[in-house]
Amino acid sequence: MKKNTRKPNAVTNKNAKLRIIGGEWRSRQLPIPEVEGLRPTPDRVRETVFNWLNFDIAGAHCADVFCGTGALGLEALSRGAASCIFVDANRAAAQQLKSNLNTLNATNAEVHFTSALTYLDQGPKRPLDIVFLDPPFRKGWLEKILPLLEEKGWLAPQALIYIERESESSFDFPSHWELIKEKSAGQLTYSLYKRD
């Protein structure tokens, strides 16, 4: 039996929009490309996550890895993040995100059309304060990505790492990462870790 690798709430509507829910660009609606398996983090989940991050976003250097629509990184920029790196291996998603950033006149963002593994293997220009990880489900991405974040020096000493994953998954996170918050919504579990 073939496993379902699609995420819940995948975008199937050509006229779908991403709504930014807080900050400078609050209520702005941006087009989303019709890409199989692509879906923005739901509004309710984003609202919870950014409540968790409320006191950490301003001035933070962020990365939105497997960014897709860029929902998490755009929300961070809207709420005062100093910068955000967006990484996605889907050309249509990366191109639409570049267009959306131009629409918003965002000059503190970079979009990289490449594999997350390839990009993270290069190492950073500067360590990151917040990393958003929202990989495709049931593909084993987190097991490959988490060691690279540490080995290549991507994380600032007190960095926060937000992770979305399938609820049934289980694996070992680095021992010096403290789980700060965690919730589940259906087949999605979302967690915030702090590097200590």
Automatic annotation (TrEMBL):
Keywords in alphabetical order: Methyltransferase, rRNA processing, S-adenosyl-L-methionine, Transferase
Its EC number is 2.1.1.171
Q: Does the keyword rRNA processing apply?
A: yes
Gene3D superfamilies xrefs: Vaccinia Virus protein VP39
EC top class, as a word: transferase
Q: Which InterPro entries match?
A: DNA_methylase_N6_adenine_CS (IPR002052), RNA_MeTrfase_RsmD (IPR004398), SAM-dependent_MTases_sf (IPR029063)
Q: Cross-referenced SUPFAM superfamilies, in alphabetical order?
A: S-adenosyl-L-methionine-dependent methyltransferases
Query: Which CDD domains does the UniProt entry name for this protein?
Result: AdoMet_MTases
One example of the protein's molecular function in GO is: 16S rRNA (guanine(966)-N(2))-methyltransferase activity
Catalytic activity annotation: guanosine(966) in 16S rRNA + S-adenosyl-L-methionine = N(2)-methylguanosine(966) in 16S rRNA + S-adenosyl-L-homocysteine + H(+)
List the PROSITE patterns hit by this protein, alphabetically. Answer: N6_MTASE
Q: Which family does it belong to?
A: Belongs to the methyltransferase superfamily. RsmD family.
NCBIfam families per record: 16S rRNA (guanine(966)-N(2))-methyltransferase RsmD (TIGR00095)
Q: Which function does this protein serve?
A: Specifically methylates the guanine in position 966 of 16S rRNA in the assembled 30S particle.
Q: What is this protein called?
A: Ribosomal RNA small subunit methyltransferase D
Query: What organism is listed for this UniProt entry?
Result: Marinomonas mediterranea (strain ATCC 700492 / JCM 21426 / NBRC 103028 / MMB-1)
